[in-house]
Design goal:
Two copies of one chain form a homodimer. Chain A has 14 helices and seven strands. Chain A has 310 residues and is of the alpha/beta class. In chain A, strands 1, 2, 3, 4, 5, 6 and 7 form a seven-stranded parallel beta sheet that branches. The radius of gyration of chain A is 18 Å and the shape is globular.
Chain lengths: 310, 310
């Protein structure tokens, strides 16, 4: 997925409109009450619950009105802080960022389910795997157990999620069995899942696993390693100026470049503290606000999408 | 325990020397190579691993030479940062702060063992209990399972602990069965446990559960709610000026009063960010260093105690 997300912006600029055609009649934009060629954007902050720094920056982003949606990592230590926020802000568009990896070195978390029931998901120290490699056998039944446990904890602690997505895209990029586990759980809890039409060509099982009532957004944009820090705003401005019609989800990662975040991510810069501060700076900026106006881009939420799909 | 620790300083000033007499021959001070009436102090930082702020302040304390020992909470998210430090600093006097509670509201952790095997230790959301009340049934067999899991993870991740102690004194203040679980585990791993002779009067099972080879330190000092922030240094200075002969363990709690620590402890001030910054300020101060010299107090470590006991 890293690979095919890397070319998302390229696709977004060069592909024809064929991929965005909805299968039956009205497009997603139309179902949301907009013209067929409207440019609609969800500005989505990932990884809430990971650290206090992520929580504080993401809440500030949401409250600026420029970040429309976010999703929370239930297994992470700071999840209770976000659950408390969600209970007090029922209008906030918060989903669950289903999490099966613990990708940092000095700061780690593990499953919500009993470890004995999800052995394939944990390493020898009981944390989620740092990474999934060719030799990591992940049991799709255990994935389903853990996803249910994460949703049940969120509900028990007062979160009413608007959607589901996947930390590090693990649930989308690792085959049909795992994606179908997500689909079963999503249908059971009646929650939309973040899936993008632009992904279908590379991962046909994503499309064939969807039922007629399932949503798929049209495009996604996310910044990747390789963009120089001083080119951050340029990358996003170019993406906004070249936006295609339909619903595009900007996947962003907010945090402050502070002591906690620097320590939590210090083994590598990618998605690190400075990276997240740059995302925060752009998506709460007057420049971003002006681009939305100039390009006639409307911000929407997962709650609106879910409502439109009904 | 909160109650009887609260009067420790009072006891320390008023009791006779009877309680410090070792059962057989040489006192602990003598076994350490000091005179019988030597005043020996372990300056012990608790709660390492809890947050990055605690880790950073405690490491700075240890490296100042004025904090001699510390213990690490294996279930906490920042344990890997401390395990990494321990591996790189094999001379640091680091024990395990055995942990069965998750006492904060917005930032939480759970067991190392599989939850299904330690049901009595977790709440309905899968975290360690926020508190143990009269109605919390804690199964001593499950305590033993969890303690072994914590020690095994620490060993697997490269920590070579010099001693064991108990977060919030839970393992000492909740009856003979739980304390004997600790003792069995400690004997198996050949590690000394932090037990204080001054506690025996109120908790006779602590004394009767010790075997002939087990260590007990003579006194302990820890600051408690009720001391005004501006009296912090006075409290410790008074304790140091009134120190009795023998081994006294100062139990302190170090962190910086920063964003992360304020957020992690914001539901109450006790043992909060400002509290821990005050402890850091005193125990790394020139005033503390001068008091040690003036009062002819020698700093010792758990490693020295364990060696002397052999």
């Amino acid at each position: 997925m890293r690979k095919f997300l890397g070319i998302t912006l390229f696709l977004l600029v060069t592909t024809s409109n064929a991929t965005q055609a909805q299968t039956a009649g009205k497009s997603l934009a139309e179902r949301l009450g907009y013209a067929r060629d409207a440019k609609l954007v969800i500005v989505h902050a990932d990884d809430l619950g990971m650290t206090h720094s992520v929580n504080a920056a993401s809440i500030k982003g949401l409250e600026s009105g420029l970040v429309t949606s976010a999703s929370i990592m239930v297994p992470c230590p700071w999840f209770p802080e976000m659950a408390d926020y969600a209970k007090a802000h029922t209008d906030a568009d918060l989903g669950l960022h289903l999490t099966l990896t613990s990708e940092r070195v000095f700061y780690r978390w593990g499953p919500v389910a009993s470890k004995g029931n999800v052995r394939s998901l944990v390493d020898s120290n009981g944390y989620f795997h740092l990474n999934w490699t060719e030799t990591t056998h992940i049991d799709a039944r255990e994935v389903e157990i853990e996803l249910r446990a994460q949703i049940e904890r969120a509900l028990a602690m007062g979160v009413r999620p608007t959607h589901l997505d996947s930390h590090q895209y693990r649930l989308f990029e690792n085959g049909k069995d795992i994606f179908q586990s997500v689909q079963r759980v999503a249908h059971e809890y009646k929650l939309p899942v973040f899936v993008v039409r632009d992904w279908f060509a590379d991962r046909p099982y994503l499309e064939t696993s969807l039922s007629a009532d399932d949503l798929a957004v049209d495009h996604t944009v996310t910044i990747e390693p390789g963009v120089a820090p001083q080119k951050w705003a340029d990358f996003y401005a170019t993406a906004l100026k070249n936006l295609q019609p339909g619903v595009t989800v900007f996947i962003i990662h907010l945090a402050f470049d502070d002591e906690e975040m620097r320590a939590a991510t210090r083994e590598r810069d990618t998605w690190g503290a400075a990276w997240r501060q740059r995302d925060f700076n752009f998506f709460t900026s007057a420049e971003f606000r002006a681009l939305l106006r100039e390009q006639d881009i409307k911000l929407v939420t997962w709650r609106e999408l879910a409502h439109a799909a009904k």
